[in-house]
Every structure is written in structure tokens, then in C-alpha cells.
Amino acid sequence: MTELLTGLMQASVWLAIAVLLLAASRPLLLALGGAALVYRSWWCVPVLLLTLHLPLPVAPLADALPMLAAAAAWSAPVVAPAAPAWPWLLLVAWALGALGNGAIAWRAQRRFERALGTLRPRADGSWQASADPGLPALVGLWAPRIVVGPGFEADFSAAEQALILQHERSHRRHGDPWANLALVVLRCVFWFHPLLPWAARRFLRDQELACDARTIDPHPAQRRLYANALLKAQLVHPVAPMACHWRSQPMLKERIAMLKEHKRKALPWMTGQVLVVGMSLGLAAVAWASKGGIDTASIEADPAALANQAGTAAVVDVPAKTRDMAPPSYPSAAFEQGLSGKVVLRVEVDAEGKAGEVRVLSSTPAGVFDAASIAAAKKWTFEPARRDGKAVASALKIPMTFQMNETGPAP
């Protein structure tokens, strides 16, 4: 439970870093490669979030099985401490928020599609709706269709109609409806993120600006005609979350300003791609490396067979062995309640045989014997692992059993 919440918080922090980096680099990317390069730079967000789920390499674990017993004069009923309720409460709140945002987005999309009315095919490959809830638009995911309103021919000239259809085809060719779906999923998962609403608005605006640039680049002489078509169509209807609308009044001025100031890109297309890929991979590598301190995946293996695994033998010739392992102190609270339990530790052993980082892989009952186990493990010494005759760092997985016996407690 806590691992899920921790991962969600870590992803939220890196999402904020990615959004701030994109906001800071946007003027430079716009000057170097235009609106299309700025839009492609948003790839760093999904790359970053996917990278956070990649596993980290871990040191090979050998097993040691000391049985650590504590004395007790009597045996009391075992009463396991109650787990704190706040992780469950946070998880329920997050799930309700995610489901609520998903339901709102689905309802808005369905309302828009129902409001289109009857669709009939047109000779140019588009579809004409009987109503106009915010058209023209590219609607659908698996087979997206360009849908125009009933007054499309009356509102726009033939040249303007061709530019509008070319704009929507560019959305379809570049998979923008799927990008909008990914944005909806992101907004559902991170509904609590304070920067995500701004990032979503900026992403959709960059998407439209990039599509405008792709449409007008082959026809620079038609910029005025393109701007006139934008001015004729001001969207006053609610937008659908996963549709690509031609009309978007909130950014009308920005789109027309881009047409007026549009210049040839300073960077070639391939150079811009390399720049975006480098930025995405660089940020993802830093985020992936930062996971080292929170990776708590337990490793299940049979103690007798683990040393014979091919992967372990390829790393070290001789695994680390325990040397001096003083037992931990039995926690007083557990002793008073007559609790027994088991803790599995991951102990990093350096090349000198000293204990380094100690982490709890699992514990039963949770949290009762963790502190005592870690405090004792930090004082242990070991025979270091060896590779090619030289001492090397490695790690041990050490299960410890805490149990009561019939003798009196140690003074």
C-alpha cells in the first residue's frame, strides 16, 4: 500500500519537474524549431513516467539463516498491532478522484458525440453532421473521422474548406486523438497535481499550433486565407476531451499571431528530433537513477539453491558470509505482549566486510521488529564476497526469527 503511494508521489514530483523544464525551454525550442518542435518536446512526459517503472539492477543476494531467540518467563497471547488507517484513506481518496475525473471526461465525450446527430459521408472523405456542437473536428480513436457541420459549405469558401480538411487530416496522421486520450488518463491519475491543469491547456495549445504550422508550411502564401478561416469559426460550445477541434476561441489570438510571425525553422527536422530525444532521455535517466533509495522489492529464493544460480555465479566467485552477528535486543513492547515474528533484511556488504545500507524487505508483524533488526545489522561484520580473488561489494538477504522461549528474560 505504502509502496503504491510512494511511487505515486515520486511520479508527481518528477511530473512537476518535467512541466517546469518544458515551460522554461519552450521559448528556445520555439525559436529553434517552431511550434512543431515544441509539441514534440511533450514526449518527455510519458517517457519520464514510463522510465520510473523500470526496475533497478540489484546486487546479488546470498542467504544467511540465523535464528535469533529471546528469553521469556511466560507466554502471553499474541496481539498484533493495528496497521495505520491513513494509507487506505489516501488510496481511497485517490481512487475516487481518478474515477470521478474519468467519468466526467467520458460523459463530456459521449455528450459531444450524441449531439452530432446523424452523420452522412461526403465526397471529400469527411462526414457531415446534422447538428453543430463544435465543428469541424476530428472525432474517434480507432477510426477517427473528420466531421463538419451542416453549414460548412455556406460558411467557408472552397479554398478555406480545403485548408480546414488538411488541418484535420494532419491531426489524424500524427495520432493526436491518441495523445488527447493519454492526456485524459494522465489527468485522471494525477487529478490532485497543481501544475497539471496548466500543463494540459498548454499541451492542447501546442498541439493546435503545431498542426497549424504543418498545414501552412507547404502553402505560406495562404496564411491570410487561413487566418480568415479561423476568424470565421469561433467555438462557443464545450470541447470534447478526445476530439481535435478546428475552432478554439481561447487561443485564437495566439494562433493568428503565430501565422503572422511564422518563419522558416532554424533547425532541420532531424536535428530537432535529436534535441527532443536527448532532452527526454536525459531527464528520464536522472529520474531512473533517483529510484535507488526507494526500491524495496523483495527477492524470494531457496537458500540452498540461490548460490548456484547462474546469474549470481557470474557476478561473484565466492558469496559473502557472516562473521560476527550479535542478536538484536527484543523490543520491550513486543516482549510485554508476547509477540513473535520474522524480519527479512537486505544488508549491503562492502569490500571490507562491513555492513552498509540495511533495508527491510518484509516483516511480520509489520513494523514491530524492524528498528531492532536494522540497529543490530549495522553492527555485524562479514567475510566479503570475492570475484577473481579480490574482495568486492555484495549484499545478503538475512531472515531473522524472533520467538519466545521458556527461560527467563536476559537482564
Which terms would index this structure?
single chain, 411 residues, alpha+beta, TolA/TonB C-terminal domain, 2 domains, 5-stranded mixed sheet, 4-stranded mixed sheet, 14 helices, 15 strands, disordered C terminus
Q: What's a concise summary of this model?
A:
It comes from Stenotrophomonas nematodicola. With 411 residues, the protein is α+β, with helices and mostly antiparallel strands.
Task: Tell me the total number of β-strands.
Answer: 15
Mean pLDDT: 80
Order of helices and strands: HHEEHEEEEHHHHHEHHHHEHEEHEEEEE
Strand order in the sheet with the most strands: 3-4-6-5-7
Q: What is the alpha-carbon Rg in Å?
A: 31 Å
Ends apart, CA distance between termini = 39 Å
What's the number of domains?
A: 2
Percent in strands = 15-25%
Keywords: Cell inner membrane, Cell membrane, Membrane, Protein transport, Signal-anchor, Transmembrane, Transmembrane helix, Transport
Family: Belongs to the TonB family.
Organism: Stenotrophomonas nematodicola
Protein name: Protein TonB
Question: How is the topology of this model organized?
Answer:
Layout: H1 2-40, H2 44-51, E1 61-63, E2 70-71, H3 86-115, E3 119-121, E4 127-129, E5 137-139, E6 145-148, H4 152-155, H5 158-173, H6 176-189, H7 196-216, H8 223-232, E7 244-245, H9 252-261, H10 269-289, H11 303-306, H12 310-315, E8 321-324, H13 332-337, E9 341-349, E10 355-364, H14 370-377, E11 381-383, E12 385-387, E13 390-392, E14 394-402, E15 404-405
Parallel strand pairs: 1-14, 2-15, 4-6
Antiparallel strand pairs: 3-4, 5-6, 5-7, 8-11, 9-10, 9-14, 12-13
Helix pairs in contact: 1-2, 1-7, 1-10, 2-10, 3-6, 5-7, 5-8, 6-7, 7-9, 8-9
Subcellular location: Cell inner membrane; Membrane
InterPro entries: Beta-lactam_resp_regulator, Peptidase_M56, TonB, TonB/TolA_C, TonB_C
Membrane topology: Single-pass membrane protein
